[in-house]
Amino acid sequence: MKKSLFLFTDSFPYGNGEQYLNEEFRLLETIFSNIYVIPVNILDKKRVGFEHVNVINIEQEIKIRKSTLIYNLYRYINLLRFELAPMNLENIKTIHHANENSEYIIDFIKKNGFKFQSITIYSYWFYHSALIASFIKKKHPQITAISRAHMGDVYDDIQTLKFPKLKFKNLDYVVTISNHAKNYLAKKFPENSNKLKTSRLGVMDLGLNSNSGNENYFTIVTCSSVTKRKRLDKIADAIKLLKNNIKWVHFGDGDQMKKIKKRIDLLPENIKVEFKGWVPNNQVLEYYQKNKVDLFVNISLLEGIPVSIMEAISFGIPILAYNVYALDEIVNEINGVLLPVESDSDEIAICLEKIMKSSFSSERIKQNWKENYFALKNYSSFIDKYLNT
User: How many CB atoms are closer than 10 A to CB 379?
Assistant: First the structure.
């Protein structure tokens, strides 16, 4: 029996976010007979290649009724007691919103003649949509309901999760993208550890990094937003200390662009910088195909397992990153170097000098990627184990 999928996202298939969902979605389309995507953020245009995606604009469709809030108030209070959450109006409204959304999806399923046992509810994030999925599952247990969990939707030091116990209570699984995230949640919610699984993200195989390029320069690439969190200023300060000819190529834009450009203006003549701004993901990958890249750098202090690193190692490009969260699950002695989080610009510069004298095997890096972060393998396994059951 072919199943139908209801997928909650942040903005996919709109905008530029969740690019890593592109390949997974293409595979989902080969498995499920119907897919309905429910984004939190509806933007002007769907992204290229996904114009055909069926979208439910749930916020436009539903009307949050005060009458049902009053009718369900006692139930909501009991749910807050179970969660040990504050008894305030904001929390009651949040639960009511999730309940109303769940009712809309259930009515949609009925009106379209679907059988509940043929339905999978998939929240891409362990945020509010995971609560909606949990409520749907509670009302119709024959439905499959799961949520992924990444980083900002896992760790309290990034942001405090709302209603995690209610989410766990009815979901079949919470599938993290790293063992670090799974272990963190298992320690925090040991009673639900049996529902926690790890299934990694991945990227497709687009070949090895090109050997053609200017051999007079050691080429460093970064790919991220230009924000304080990404700490590009540390990279600028580090390469300023190097005597070698360095070419630094950055893909991405952000609110710190003016500040970082002022730092770049102070770099010596042996440092060449190209800030490409925001470009579509396929253009970044095309750069890796056609231009020699010696090192990919990510020294953000807030990273789970970045897709940007998966992409780099898929081309056989070595990595330099801080040893934070789950980074040691993707960066190892085969494919790069992890820095202690307290490393300053001087220490980063010393590490860069060592890397320039070392030799990483692009073939070994790529093989290591294929064993762990190959999209076709990882997403096929994820779908078989958790969605199409």
Answer: 23
